[in-house]
Amino acid sequence: MQAAIAQAAEILRAGGIVAFPTETVYGLGADATNSSAVQKIFMAKERPAWDPLIVHVSDEAMLRRVARFVPERAQPLMEAFWPGPLTMLLEKSDAVASEVTAGLMRVGVRMPKHPVAQALIRTAGLPLAAPSANRFGRISPTTADHVLQDLDGRIDAVIDAGPCPLGVESTVLDVCESPMVLYRPGAVTAEQIAALAGEVRVYRPEVDETAETSSLIAGSASPGPGVASPGLEVRHYAPRAKLLLADSGDGDEGWRIRLRMLDLLHETVERGQRAGLMLPQGWEFAPEDLPLEKRIFHWGSWESAESLAKGLFAGLRYLDSLGVDVIICPLPNHAGLGAALQDRLRKAAQS
Fold first, then answer.
1. Cα–chain-centroid distance for residue 65?
2. pTM of the predicted model, to two decimals?
3. CATH numbers and ranges of domains, the chain
4. What are phi and psi of 113, to 5 degrees?
């Protein structure tokens, strides 16, 4: 692994792009201070220029290279959650390529916990701009194989260190606003942040966005100043198959959700379409209710948001690989990390 990291670091210093594991998902990294290198990320992913990137750093000294100012309220969050899955929006320094922030004055920064990510950043000696290593808008990658499914031939290298332990992207928090704004939910929750650093307002696009910015998020506007945070697109994390979500509509009663899944399954079969199921552990249906052959992904424990998060993107990719027309997935209603699961699934289900 050390040789792979050293080789990848050389590629990055030469202006190349490398996919590497983090604790959340695999990222596609480039030198955040090199405009031409950063542009390669956008080309490989087919990512619009208005969608900003997150910069990954290895220590506070590197943080000071990319951020002009770190508010006092950020200190307890850094102490509690760095290294880890928390991205903070900070005032950018002149060293950061303008493409990284889509022309905005704030840059998302985080310090990843994965030992390979840490070693790569330290060895390269560079802050790395690194969005998820997949085609834009598609399912995020949690293994090196997922990366190659989308980007083989488009990138210089990928470091394979096995599956990512968390499985969903980092929390994105603007610490420069008062109250702070949580743009993307993740493993670090709004409740945890508020307990340490004060009031947090959760971003609501239907409330917070102007018509102009909403059209930009949907991808219909011409390039210009970017959206505030990655992951705000209306449709994101999406499989090729149509994703249908089974919701209880009232609380988190598993039996109601299972009945809704069966209704959606029968409707899909009646339309002559092939269906796949994201099926939590321990959930079973009678054989006559499942005209699916082997089109089932055995998901994590319904009682554990962590278990569901770890298998979410892998399950969607697996069912997509079977060529199904429709994927039917129960919608978790857990608190905490459950908010991140709901966010990813609702965006993936947008038509």
1. 25
2. 0.89
3. 2-170 (3.90.870.10), 242-348 (3.40.50.11030)
4. -95, -25
